[in-house]
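To whoever is on call:

I kicked off a structure prediction for a single chain this morning and the downstream step that reads the tokens threw a length-mismatch warning. I double-checked the sequence; it's 484 residues and nothing unusual in it as far as I can see. Pasting both halves so you can look.
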Amino acid sequence: MSLWQKGLKELSDLIRSGEVKPSEVVLSFAERTGEVEPQLKSYVTNLIEEAVEEAKKKDEQLPKLEKIPSLYGLPVAVKDNISTRGIRTTCSSRMLENYIPPYDATVIEKMKAEGYILTGKTNLDEFAMGSSTENSAFFTTKNPWDYSRVPGGSSGGSAAAVGSGIVPAALGSDTGGSIRQPAAFCGVVGLKPTYGRVSRYGLVAFASSLDQIGPIGRRVEDTALLLNVIGGKDRRDSTSADAPMEDFLSYLGKDIKGLRIGLPKEFFPEGLDATIKGLVLDAVKQLEKEGAEVVEVSMPTTEYAIEAYYIIAPSEASSNLARYDGVRYGYRTKDYKDLEEMYSKTREEGFGAEVKRRIMLGTYSLSSGYYDAYYLKAQKVRTLIYRDFMEAFKQVDLLATPTTPDVAFKIGEKTDDPVQMYLSDIFTVSVNMAGVPAISLPCGFKDGLPVGLQLIGKPFDEGTLLQVAHRYEALAGLYSRFPE
């Protein structure tokens, strides 16, 4: 097996044992990148050549180290809405096409302290608004299993990069499913941590009460390793929780006997694709054979999650994106008569259609006379969704659902119908509304395309999620399959 076919944790063990050098690891991924990336288009900024040079320096430093950090010499890609000092961070938008941050996000600082090597900044839907990576201002990333299909979104570049084997792991961000949905479409593992588990300092804001950075990897153990590094309280992020950090790798390999898994009936509606439903229920049956107990639960407010989400998220976006006005940084129109025209033309030219749509939706929801009818009511629904989860967790330890209602769709198939695009997040948005953790991992294939199983956990109980996901992954063994 080539080094590029191995996961992050496997490669970490090989470097720490002295069996391979960082340069050998990174060169293997560089060769794979050269073969695949021209068609895949997962990187907005490809830094693989710089990564090879950095790995050679790491080779020289390795013998002098008393203790080898957990990510030492390991290549990781980063979604291009996470600030990297001195490296372009575009959010896949013309508005920030030439923006170079003067600081690192907290997650980048933490990974640097553990010796990681950045391979590039990955493509996304502009400002993380989308479910297909077709809303990027630059190009559409392809699905590694079928180049005619989308990789999902908004972290489509990160998921496609990991799924194709050009990098063993990547960081994404998840506002309504943006880590889990592309992970499902690309056949990899994606973890959305509890809101507040990982610092958002340096993440370019979309919807501040929903956004969360998380890891994408080939294996469950890869996401556990990255969460160990990036999690924890950060004084620079007021929403960062002071929850105790654990060694999440210690949960892997544990027995799942006696754990109670809930099947929320609202996540298995009439009309759900029979193959998707069958694969998810088969996965749960395998866990049941391992000693887990399966219980049906009801979460009646789930049906309102999409509607409430598409009021709250655009409302926060319209507020957050007000800063892009052409005055202080970012794109500015070249031709204008006065300040007002400069504002309007800058935003007209700098933002794409989907971003404009969401700004208008949000501004309308927050406007005088409509605030109570829309935004306030949506926040009340959000509270009910949270209560549904907490009631369910009185009966069970975690929930199992499909990640998506179907497999990856064709490029261009849903671009003319935003509502159909929004509905592809139907099983993921309620998790963000409640702030709870969830993981997506492969549970089979439909027509040669990956299908995702979603496990949802109690707040700050990522350990149990990883424990159960790891047990299922070992039973299914799907991580060794790569797109041809």
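Update from on-call: the warning came from a stale cache, not from the record. Cleared it. Sanity check on the structure: The chain has 15 helices and eleven strands.
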